[in-house]
Amino acid sequence: MSTLATPRDRIVITGVGLTSPIGNNLAEYRASLLAGRSGVVEREIRYMGKVLAGVCNFDELRYQKRKDLRRGTRAGSISIYCAREAVADSGLDWAAVAKDRVGVYIGITEHGNVETENEVYEISQFNYDTKVWSHHHNPRTVANNAAGEVTLNLGITGPHYTIGAACAAGNIGFIQGMQQLWLDEVDLAVVGGVSESIHTFGIFASFKSQGALASHAEPARASRPFDKARNGIVVAEGGCLCTLERLPDALRRGAKIYGEIVGYAINSDATDFVLPYSKRQAECLRAALRRAGLQPGDIDILNTHATATEQGDVEECLAIKEVFGDCPRLAVNNTKSFIGHAMGAAGALELLGNIPSFEDGYAHATINLDDLDPACDVGQAQIVANQPRHMGRVTHILNNSFGMLGINSALVVRRFDP
C-alpha cells in the first residue's frame, strides 16, 4: 500500500455493489436502464394507503442471519449487501486486507425515522406503555448506523461514519472517501449512499402536504422529469457502495478499474429550505470542472438530479444551460425516471448507472419524457428522451446532485486510461 498520500494521487473505483428497484448488481441495473424498464410500483403505507414507490428486492439473507435483520435496520441491511458485493467485485483478498486501514463513508438523507415511527405505532397498540419500546432502538437510530453495521458485518476496524447531506449525500460519500485516501487515513474506502425512505410514512405525507408527491394511473409512468405533465417525486429505496483505492495500489494487484474520479465540488445556496437555486448550482458545476482541469465541452454525459418537481427541474436546467448550453455533443439524462428518488442513495446509483457508458458507449435515456417542458431547455445540449443515445467513445461523466437546505454537489469521473 502507499506510504504517503497527496491530492495528486489518482483515485479509482475498483468494486461496485448495489441494489435498486431495477437490479441487484451493476449488470442487471444497466440492462434495465438501456431497456427502458421502470421499477416503480404501488406500495401500501401506514396511514397513507397506496402510494407509488421504487422498491428493492435483494437477498437480505445472503450476508446476514435473521436475528441480524431483526436487530438491525433496513438501511444497515442495504449497506451490508452493497458493501459485501463491492468487496467481492473488487477482487480484493479480503482475509489479507488490513481492516484498520479500511474506512466506510456512507451518504444518507435521514436515518431513524423508520424505527421511531414503528416503535411509536407499536406502543400505540398497548396504550402507549413504554415498556413495549425496543431496547434496540438507540443503536438502530444513531446516525452512524448504516456505516456501523457494515463494520460489524465485515470486521472493519478503521474509521466509519455516515454523511448527512440530504439528496447530495451519494456524491459526497465518494468525495469523503477520496479525501480520506489523500490524507492517508485509509488505504481502502467503501463509499456511496443508501436509503430506506420508502419504509417511513412521514416522507410520503410531507411530500403530499407540499404538493410534491407523484401520482399516475400507471406506476411505471409516474416519475417523469422534465415532462410538462410531471407532478412530483416518486420515493425510492436503494443503495450503491463502491471500493475506492489509490491508483498504484489498484495497479499493483491488477484490479479492474471502472473509472477515475477527477473532479468534484460542494457548495450551498443559502437561499431557501427547499427550493434549489440555479446560480449556485452553476457555480458548483464550474467548480467541479475547474478541479478536474476540464472545459464544459469535455463532458460527454451529464446525469441530472431532476426529481420531477415543477420548479426543481427548471432551476437545474437553467444551471445546465448556463454552463453547458454551448455543448451540442453533451447527453443530458436522468435515472430517477426509472427508479424514483432514492434520496441518500440517489447520487451513487445515478453515477454508477452511467459508468458502463465507458464500455458500451451509450447514454441511457430519460424515460416518460413525452412532452418536454420548454422551461427545461438546456441549449445546444440534448436531454436524451426515451431511447438510449449512442455516443461512441465516452471519456467524462458528470453527476449532479443537490438537496434540501440548499446543498449542491457535482462529481466528475473519467474513463480510465493507464
3D architecture notes:
With 418 residues, the protein is of the alpha/beta class. It has 2 domains: 11-252, Thiolase/Chalcone synthase (Peroxisomal Thiolase, Chain A, domain 1, 3-Layer(aba) Sandwich), CATH 3.40.47; 263-414, 3-Layer(aba) Sandwich (Peroxisomal Thiolase, Chain A, domain 1). Helices cover 33% and strands 22% of the residues. The protein has 14 helices and 16 strands. It has helices at 26-35, 66-71, 74-90, 113-124, 137-141, 145-154, 169-182, 201-210, 247-252, 278-292, 310-324, 336-339, 346-354, 357-360; strands spanning 11-19, 40-45, 49-54, 102-108, 160-164, 188-195, 235-236, 238-246, 259-268, 301-304, 331-334, 362-363, 382-383, 389-390, 396-403, 407-414. An 11-stranded mixed sheet has the order 5-4-6-8-1-9-16-15-10-11-13, sandwiched between helices. A hairpin with a 3-residue loop joins strand 2 (40-45) and strand 3. Helix 10 packs across helix 11.
